[in-house]
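Good morning,

Attaching, inline, the backbone tokens for the sequence recovery test we're adding to the shared suite. The designed sequence is right after.
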């Protein structure tokens, strides 16, 4: 583990191939991101780097509580630490930021892997599935704390005790984060990037993976956003929700490996 001059905390693998920077879901840490994405990259020569965003994990909140400020910190860290362009991967909010970096600083980005990406940040603006997921077995949510059950009921498409256990472990992995910063960011007018609706094309290889039962960000908005990605692959996966990496890890790996192949051609 090292600390950057931009005060982002990160873990880095010892690969010798292309560099991939992995960004976390909102409120989650680099440890959780590694648990989600590292199995999909296993056996490759990637140099994987997992970041804690400002106010997340072990990185202090040293910037204003806006998504643009967080994105700017990540871009400054990339300027300082990598030889651009690099591969970017992210889930949920991390994917939202990765797509924003590709719009605003395309010279930094070689390719995008976006897993359950946010497209519009305001919950009221998202197109969510109308159908309920297939019911899980009796007691599938019993391990979850009471205050998380409604969230997991909306978020999960693969509804088993084993998936719940894996997600709960990810939610508590890594450093403590800054709850005040996260609440201010999420509730403030700066939560949306100012250019989130701009259809600036990104011409590198892109893979967008969505969960058919994702009740948090859905799957339809992501399909409509594919006009931004002339070299984009879009997939929606059944029996998967917002925690797709933990719900369908084998399918994530298959699509990630295909994306990596395309980044080298």
């Amino acid at each position: 583990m090292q600390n950057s001059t931009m005060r982002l905390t990160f873990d880095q693998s010892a690969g010798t191939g292309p560099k991939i920077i992995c960004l976390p879901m909102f409120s989650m840490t680099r440890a959780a991101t590694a648990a989600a994405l590292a199995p999909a990259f296993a056996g490759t020569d990637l140099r994987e780097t997992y970041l804690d965003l400002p106010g997340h994990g072990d990185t202090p909140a040293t910037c204003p509580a806006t998504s643009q400020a967080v994105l700017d910190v990540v871009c400054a860290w990339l300027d300082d630490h990598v030889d651009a362009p690099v591969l970017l991967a992210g889930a949920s909010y991390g994917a939202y930021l990765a797509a924003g970096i590709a719009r605003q600083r395309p010279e930094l980005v070689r390719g995008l892997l976006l897993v359950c990406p946010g497209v519009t940040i305001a919950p009221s603006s998202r197109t969510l599935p109308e159908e309920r997921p297939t019911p899980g077995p009796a007691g599938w949510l019993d391990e979850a704390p009471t205050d998380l059950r409604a969230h997991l009921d909306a978020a999960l498409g693969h509804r088993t005790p084993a998936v719940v256990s894996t997600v709960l472990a990810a939610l508590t992995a890594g450093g403590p984060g800054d709850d005040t910063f996260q609440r201010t960011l999420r509730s403030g007018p700066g939560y949306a990037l100012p250019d989130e609706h701009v259809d600036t094309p990104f011409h590198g290889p892109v893979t967008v993976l969505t969960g058919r039962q994702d009740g948090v960000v859905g799957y339809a908005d992501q399909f409509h956003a594919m006009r931004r990605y002339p070299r984009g692959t879009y997939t929606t996966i059944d029996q998967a929700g917002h925690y797709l990496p933990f719900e369908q890890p084998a399918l994530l790996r298959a699509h990630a490996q295909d994306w990596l192949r395309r980044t080298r051609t």
